[in-house]
Amino acid sequence: MAGRNFSNETHDEHQAEFAGDFDARYHIPPIAVAVVIIGLNGWVLYLVKTKPNLQSSMNFLLCSLALSDLLTGSLSIPLHVCCDVTWKTNICVASQLFMRFTSVSTVMHLLAITMDRYLGIKHALRYNALVTKNRVIVTSVFIWSSSIFASLIQLAWINYGRDDVDEEDEDLTKHEIRYDVTNLVLYVVIPFVVMTIVYVTIFFEILRHYRNIKQYNSPGWAETKKRTHHEWKAVAIFSIMLFVFIVCWLPFFTIRLQYNLGKKLFELPHSTEYVFVYLRFFTSFFNPFMYIFGKRDFRQAINFSRRSLFTRFHSSSYHSSMKTTTV
């Protein structure tokens, strides 16, 4: 499939040395990352499922994102490794489809979460009326549907009759170039610009709110200050998630496009290209870390679970010791 690797030279060297073989240097690290991704995102889904206080509209969106990241660990990375080992066209096509699906899904989830934060801060009094469970469900369905469409549309021009996954095909390359440019604009450039504008707006709104209450020494100043602090943290967390997405995916999209165009704007060592190939999976590893350890409600749920587990363990140990003493 066009664009599977960044350069034909790199592909030829890599294929000559590793094609058809499993090489621990290249394939063990992504498999290990996949296991961690599955564990972390599975844990997020479990927490929201079992903790009623986590079942908010934003956390339902985070669950949807966690499910998308879970698919990255359970399907996208294994398919990519299988493609790298076997060079079978069907496997490599499936790998490309899933990678495109997860990349589009990630950025659209981040966009939805950004708008949720905007409504929560700009229209705090009307938030519950604006962000209802049904609207969250509709948003999630739209995200998944559009992500699936954006990935499956590639099937319209893929030639399954090719024996070589990197066989040159002029028509295919033209389709891939148009597709790459469209994806770069729709799912990287535009979302980044929109989210940047929204976060800047949120920043000034929080700042204005904070200054007004401080200036007039309004009642409930301490509580408002505490709430504003949490709003700052939430904005910081999701801004970092956006930044990580750009850092992880923009190099891959850009370099893939330059090789489809057949113009090398800059040369990269093989090790750097290898990093860019697998860097795109890092968002699925990083996202759950941010909202598990960064969001207060998740931290509280984890601490409560830990205390409950410790209490049960201590109680079990106490009863066991009492039985032993009695005997």
Write the layout of secondary structure elements.
Blueprint: H1 8-18, H2 24-50, H3 57-86, H4 89-122, H5 127-130, H6 133-152, H7 170-216, H8 221-260, H9 270-279, H10 282-293, H11 296-326
Helix pairs in contact: 2-3, 2-10, 3-4, 3-10, 4-6, 4-7, 4-8, 7-8, 8-10
Largest sheet: none
Portion of residues in helices? over 70%
SSE pattern, N- to C-terminal: HHHHHHHHHHH
Number of helices: 11
Label the structural class: mainly alpha
Radius of gyration (CA) equals: 24 Å
Strand tally, please?
Answer: 0
Low-pLDDT segments, ≥5 res: 1-19
Percent strand equals under 5%
Termini separation comes to 71 Å
Cα shape: globular
Give the overall average pLDDT: 77
Characterise this structure.
This protein starts with 7 loop residues before the first helix and ends with a helix. About 80% of the residues lie in helices and about 0% in strands. Helix 4 runs parallel beside helix 7. The protein is globular and about 65 Å long. With about 325 residues, the protein is an all-alpha fold.
Describe what is shown at a glance.
The chain has 327 residues and is mostly helical. The chain has helices at 8-18, 24-50, 57-86, 89-122, 127-130, 133-152, 170-216, 221-260, 270-279, 282-293, 296-326. It is globular and about 65 Å long.
Descriptive keywords:
327 residues; mainly alpha; globular; disordered N terminus
